[in-house]
Amino acid sequence: MSDNLRDFLSDNEPPTDYEKLRILIIGFPVGVTETIHTLYSLGFAEVNDWSPLLPAPKPGEVMSILTRDRLRVTRRDRPR
Prior knowledge:
Blueprint: H1 3-9, E1 18-27, H2 29-41, E2 54-55, E3 62-71
Antiparallel strand pairs: 1-3, 2-3
């Protein structure tokens, strides 16, 4: 695993009421970039919220990671 990917996936922060969610897009550069822009047009995330294109394990492919915080919900907090 590359150091860049390891940095994005590391979670060295103390536990809180939030959890980190990571969404990963892997593919050829044009496809990854187009998907990020499509998700932006759908209101999913700002283009600049995604990581820069990082090398993927497969030659010629790249990946981009979106990290979001989500409030942790316990079973008793969920609506019935």
